[in-house]
Amino acid sequence: MLVFTLAGGCGRKAPPPTPPPPEVAVLVVAPATVAESYDFSGEVVPFRRVEVRARVDGIIEQRPFTEGALVRPGQVLYRLDRVRYEAAYRSALARYQNAKQTYERIEPLLAVHAIAQQDLDNARSQLDAALAALDAAKKDLDDTVVRAEIVGRVGRTQLDLGARVTGPADILTTIDQLDPVYVSFRPTTQQLLTWRQDPRARALIQPGGRLAVRVTLPDGTRLPRTGTLNYVSPAADPQTGTEEFRALFTNPDRLLVPGQFVRVQLTGFSREAAIALPQRAVQQALGRQFVYLVGPGDTVITRDIVPGPWSGALWIIDRGLAPGDRVIVDGSQKIAPGRVVKPVPLADSAARAAPAAGAAR
């Protein structure tokens, strides 16, 4: 019997050892001054757009420009029929020459009292009127040649060869000056109110201030230069609840094209006593956003949060966290609420250095 008892005892297995608590990387919440940026949708607007019009009427005889090409001041864009205006100019020139000869012939007669002063005054008036008519006729003749007034890119022609121009009411084409160029964007009145309540932010959004405006092109690439804010609308648009802001950019490579939609990022703002986390620390489920915390006894708990704007790679948290909270950043895939974990300091130096960099700026 003793032998059977010993044999049965040897066949029992020892219970498996308890697995160690999973290791998670935590970030201890510490408020700091962090850099803050804001993103908006923007539209590229030409620095100057000129509508090309003819000052006189007539038939278009020549259009010596290529649509979409770069034109310079004085370059000929259209030539109108000149016959009628040349005839009017020659007629005005003849009247002027006749009035001038008449005046020069009778002017010496006044000294010998051969004519009255009134006769000389009338001749002078006729000479002045003839000169004015000559100048007007010369201007009309010159205006049959329509020239570019600014440097820029010319658009499509609205009237082509053989078409009749009725005068200044007809737009022949447009010229857009593209270097420099404007980028227009519209913050909401609520956002503007927040900025204006902060003295530092209020100074940034003044035209010509230190606000840096960056642009991301439609293909996702960043424009390799920054713009400067040069216009803030004095009134809000009642239909959209926004105010127009406009930034000036140099555009030598023509990467910015009028009508193009871009992403605008404003940098230079900062927030004091802010709490910021890496994006991967924020969990989302069923319409709520929350984080895992290491609570008393190193157990996992959840906390709902309200995220705010971005600060580089960090997400500023508006509400839900307090100084000293231990937020789980890495290792959340192997934990659950109520489970004991082993917290270790977060090794993500970039996440810890970002608040310090924001404070330095």
Structural write-up:
This protein has four domains: 23-34 and 274-360, conserved putative lor/sdh protein from methanococcus maripaludis s2 fold; 38-47 and 177-271, Efflux pump adaptor protein, beta barrel domain (Elongation Factor Tu (Ef-tu), domain 3, Beta Barrel); 58-78 and 146-169, no CATH class; 82-143, Helix hairpin bin (Helix Hairpins). α2 packs antiparallel against α3 (117-142). It is elongated and about 145 Å long. The strands form four sheets. The protein has a six-stranded antiparallel barrel with strand order 2-9-12-11-10-13. The protein has a four-stranded antiparallel beta sheet with strand order 6-5-3-8, with no helix packed on it. It has a three-stranded mixed beta sheet with strand order 19-1-20, with no helix packed on it. The protein contains six helices and 20 strands. The protein has 361 residues and is α+β, with helices and mostly antiparallel strands. Residues 1-7 and 352-361 have low confidence and may be disordered. 24% of the residues lie in helices and 37% in strands.
The number of distinct structural domains comes to 4
Distance between the termini: 84 Å
The helix tally amounts to 6
Element-level helix/strand string: HEEEEEHHEEEEHHEEEEEEEEEEEH
- Strands of the widest sheet, in order across it, are 2-9-12-11-10-13
Secondary-structure content class: alpha+beta
Strand content range: 35-45%
Estimate the global geometry from the Cα principal axes: elongated
Q: What is the rounded Rg?
A: 39 Å
Q: What would the average pLDDT be, to the nearest integer?
A: 88
